[in-house]
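hey so i finally got around to running the thing on that chain from the lab meeting. sorry it took forever, my laptop kept dying and i had to restart like 3 times. anyway pasting the input first so we r on the same page abt which one it is
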Amino acid sequence: MIAQVSGNVAALGPTSAVVETGGVGLLALCSPGTLAHLRIGQRTTLFTALVVREDSLTLFGFASADEREFFELLLTATGVGPKLAQAALAVLSPDELRHAIATENLVVLCKVPGIGRKGAQRIVLELKDKINAVGLVAEPGAPTLPGHAVWRNQVAQGLIGLGWAPKDAEAACDEVEPMLAEQPDLGVPALMRAALLTLARR
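ok and heres what got predicted. didnt touch it at all, straight out
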């Protein structure tokens, strides 16, 4: 199992990144949110999951260990393959997925391309008792927004990776945090873009 890779970003594609580590370029399939944090030539760490098939070995890369663990959990649900699991994490954060499963919110789960009502029901049925294994569940009735520590850490690390000082990254997070009160469904990529805009205006 390849749990993570660290090194310089050698190449970026629409759905993948190549990270050079130990003289070897490892290609990892990544969500748009993860790719948004990467820049060619800059050092990065991707948390990874290796999916083994009879005819292929495919590495999937994530911005956080939490995303990777939830990806692996989703794969245990009947009918959920790697592409669908990655699509779910591209549309919803792990905390949003936890809350949707815990509260049996099929409407939220059906936002993911490829998941219909029956598929959402199956995911809830099979994973509801397992979600505590990868993190705390939001209290019933809590808004489905990225967990504070999760989104803040991802945005801050992304900004630092782009060359901003840690104090500037934290200040940008402070400025965009009120956006979640107005738009609870904002994901990490949108928050990242907003943080970059606040830094650009300085």
